[in-house]
Amino acid sequence: MEVVAELSVCTYTKATTRLHSSQLSISSTHLSYLRRRAFRPITRPRDARITCSVTSDQVQAPIAVQAEGPKTKNDCYGVFCLTYDLKAEEETKAWKKTINISVSGAAGMISNHLLFKLASGEVFGPDQPIALKLLGSERSFQALEGVAMELEDSLFPLLREVKIGINPYEVFQDAEWALLIGAKPRGPGMERAGLLDINGQIFAEQGKALNAVASPNVKVIVVGNPCNTNALICLKNAPKIPAKNFHALTRLDENRAKCQLALKAGVFYDKVSNMTIWGNHSTTQVPDFLNARINGLPVKEVIKDHKWLEEEFTEKVQKRGGVLIQKWGRSSAASTAVSIADAMKSLVTPTPKGDWFSSGVYTTGNPYGIAEDLVFSMPCRSKPCLRKFKRILQGDGDYELVKDVIFDDYLLKRINKTEAELLAEKRCVAHLTGEGVAFCDLPEDTMLPGEM
Amino acid sequence: MEVVAELSVCTYTKATTRLHSSQLSISSTHLSYLRRRAFRPITRPRDARITCSVTSDQVQAPIAVQAEGPKTKNDCYGVFCLTYDLKAEEETKAWKKTINISVSGAAGMISNHLLFKLASGEVFGPDQPIALKLLGSERSFQALEGVAMELEDSLFPLLREVKIGINPYEVFQDAEWALLIGAKPRGPGMERAGLLDINGQIFAEQGKALNAVASPNVKVIVVGNPCNTNALICLKNAPKIPAKNFHALTRLDENRAKCQLALKAGVFYDKVSNMTIWGNHSTTQVPDFLNARINGLPVKEVIKDHKWLEEEFTEKVQKRGGVLIQKWGRSSAASTAVSIADAMKSLVTPTPKGDWFSSGVYTTGNPYGIAEDLVFSMPCRSKPCLRKFKRILQGDGDYELVKDVIFDDYLLKRINKTEAELLAEKRCVAHLTGEGVAFCDLPEDTMLPGEM
Asked: Does the keyword Disulfide bond apply (chains A, B) (predicted)?
């Protein structure tokens, strides 16, 4: 791990060795804290409990304290409506402030993998409690209940709250991470422009909701396609949130590219580093074999078959999803969820020395000469910081663009093509970004095989 | 954590700080070691590679060394056929011997959750490499390839080998864990006796295969239903493997029971302990509220509604799977996978002081007076041991039955009923356990709702 000379103190986790009353009262808008505080078991810890409308038929009448009023159906789910024992928590002195994670498309298959990974502590570590706020639709509400029931039955010690709902203004409340997975699939005969418009409206609405109710420094990862332009729409509708906090997921492409290079070179995949995906999460994307390294050496020095690199490699990365659908009969939910967890971990842990990761991020101010005001996949490094009390090096959720990359004509030509596509997509959604009348001249279908 | 006075050194993991040549030659039957040894990169570490028939069209011609001969298609998959860099591994000095895990029903939804949990290090920890050997059927072989591809694309650093196949004698080779998830679902109009016979034949065959090729101390967890009797059939066909190594999964029932008690008592689920599921994984199972504890107190002292405990609690636990199917439209794959991981973790980590967990295990020698020679869910504690070099307390994969449990008439009556059912199931499969002619007099359908 690289220890950078100038370390800031993490602004993101706000780690505390214990929860003080003063801190509780500061976050006065945070319902769960109020609830915990209200029921903080001082004299009768064992009797402290709280009723919840979802389970009111099951729970004993409260003995010590009453809930602060009737809750809406979506405020909490089942066992997660119950008091978490704050006193015992304080005794461990290790718990940190709960991280609020909102997830859209929460009843879908990608989420079904991702939520259980998050709840098990895989992303934020074994001493970091989390709350999951799940956004579904009217149609998927029962399935959301099923997901919440399975989360109950899993007894994850780190999972302190689960909330389900269909209103983003409720579900995104106080979100510190928003994982926007849900999107409408493309219907039969629908053009990419039509898909951009339908999903763009969803992401415009979700951007407004994040702007209104999420944590002002919320990190947003857009997975629903077309994810780059959806992320652009989302950030344009959330002016209070820093534009650099919005990500479009290209990590699965990066992971697949690393695996294909490993296969070709005959090395295990952990030997491949510095893999950039440039541009759009579409068939114009550019897996960059010029800057990537194998065992620390430039790929072109290790893989002598340059024809394969130029003509087959990119296609192998892009066709992976389609081949998977043929083999497996479903899209790649598990590995997509892994790549979302990877993307989050990359932001909250220090990037290994000399390496980087790819993410679709806001281009304004980029050092590569890429057109500004787009969401474009580029090489990133997390910004390390020191956790205040424990002196542990970690990422703070923020990142910086990598400067020491090289370009050749071949790479630039392909970057220009994916840039042109993203500019065209942007013109298609001008009505959703507040930039006037949309004009759509997308030349071809560039959806990745196996994705909707 | 309880530190027991007499600690043995772990026999299970055989942890080593590094792999010595001498150790490699000892495990001479272990193909992967031979392969690694053969390609151990001494003078030209970067060039060492190995071809694999699956990917021979993709991989460069080998430079330094040749593979030791043509491999069968099922011997390894894709990137997992490639040399793992043993030299770098030695430099870290932290890796342990790879654990071989075989999984049947590997193309199904439960496995789709479980395999990614195992590969991420959730069960065996962040410094424990694993190998996954996946058993499917002719029909599911393509889906198995899809699973292997998604595992490739996930770049799990701990996942050193993936093998797929349809022959248990190949897939169970050297298995140290066998997770038997695959089973035939019940067809329309099929009686439980018919299901017992069809699945019993599968588990008899798999028991023979384990006996022939698995590690002699393999731990076997049977998930496919009817899991208790399947586990009994399996162990009867594997006389070389200790009978106590076979488990029938009742951990999901235990987890659900804990959650329902927490809901009723109005406490978070981490306050419920000492939860036993007695008997069969069927509707005759006995979730034991007499011995269970909430905040360290007997459940009956905390939940005063004893009528609910006697008349509703068990039903709530058992109907959970059925309700989930209604809500979610699928069976509970994610929480089942969590419970399998829980069951494994319980065996390889020390059981917290005073607590226990449930598993369907062999009854011979049990202290409760339950009929011998059955697989019956009972309260277990893992056996702690010290890891040789690192002095870390862990479970060694073995367990002992808990002695300090109490019984009352109500509990005994119900235990007798589930015992009678398991004795009847055993008579149904006498032809598969080598005990003569089967005689089937199962009185009623006791499959749990939501399970096949």
From this structure: yes
